[in-house]
Design goal:
By secondary structure, this protein is of the alpha/beta class. It has a single domain (6-27, 42-225), classed as Vaccinia Virus protein VP39 (Rossmann fold), CATH 3.40.50.150. The protein is built from six helices and nine strands; from the N terminus they run E-E-H-H-E-H-E-H-E-E-H-E-H-E-E. It has helices at residues 35-39, 54-65, 82-89, 103-113, 150-161, 178-187; strands at residues 6-13, 16-23, 72-76, 93-98, 120-123, 136-142, 162-172, 191-196, 210-215. The strands form two sheets. A seven-stranded mixed beta sheet has the order 5-4-3-6-7-9-8, with helices on both faces. A two-stranded antiparallel sheet has the order 1-2. Strand 4, helix 4 (103-113) and strand 5 form a beta-alpha-beta unit. The chain is globular, with a radius of gyration of 17 Å. Keywords: Methyltransferase, Transferase. Pfam families: Methyltransf_16. GO terms for molecular function: methyltransferase activity.
Length: 228
């Protein structure tokens, strides 16, 4: 990307290699025209979107095997878009979203690197209603509960954009904010199951990382029982 140092890495998921262009490090920040300030992104957070994090890989692995046939899917906080690329390869109907000003450009680049059509992208601040976005059968996100206030924002987002018979799948590294999110979704009629697993090589049980699977209505079988 112009003005940024990047490198390409290969992520292998369910027998497929995904080429991902990422930022070379976490120290890159420039805001000559006030883009970061307008987006409300601090210099410390600016480069975080540009990496493949363990929680993001865990979510992409889940999307490689999830039942997505006939579902309209929204990824929130997509970052570099790995999970959305997996879904695009599987020909799912997916909308990727983020609020970082560079996310859409990196998503387009990574789709091109993998020979995929561009993924539909939306700028989606979580606290700002968007009446044009519509509703989804499956909403996914990785490490999206990294600040205390995000739980309430995302519960409200689910109320706006989830179908009555919806599934929400969140990969979480265990930052401690998932409890408030789970309670909020329970009040909206969701049940939750969780699968704890190692998000990085060398981790040993008990694992902090987990995939949280929220279901409401006739959303279908749990992920572990879903067919590829």
């Amino acid at each position: 990307m112009p003005g940024y140092a990047t490198h390409q890495l290969t992520v292998r998921l369910s027998g497929h290699d995904y080429r991902i262009e990422a930022l070379s490090d976490l120290q890159q920040f420039a805001d000559p025209d006030g883009t970061a300030a307008r987006a409300g992104i601090s210099s410390a957070q600016w480069s975080l979107f540009g990496q493949v994090w363990p929680a993001g890989r865990a979510l992409a692995e889940a999307m490689a095997i999830a039942d997505v046939d006939g579902k309209r899917i929204l990824e929130i906080g997509c970052g570099l878009g790995l999970s959305s690329l997996v879904l695009q390869r599987r020909r799912a109907e997916v909308v990727a979203s983020d609020h970082h000003p560079l996310a859409g450009s990196f998503l387009d680049r990574n789709a091109w690197l993998n020979g995929l059509p561009p993924v539909t992208y939306r700028n989606l601040p979580w606290a700002t209603p968007d009446a044009t976005l519509g509703r989804f059968d499956l909403i996914i996100g990785s490490d999206v509960l990294y600040e205390r206030g995000h739980a309430a924002q995302l519960v409200a987002l689910m109320q706006r954009h989830a179908h009555p018979d919806a599934q929400v799948l969140i990969s979480d590294p265990g930052r401690g904010n998932s409890g408030a999110f789970s309670r909020g979704l329970a009040e909206c009629g969701y049940s939750v199951s969780e699968t704890r697993s190692a998000f990085a090589a060398g981790e040993v049980a008990p694992f902090r990382g987990r995939v949280l699977d929220y279901r409401r209505g006739s959303a279908g079988l749990p992920l572990a029982e879903a067919s590829p």
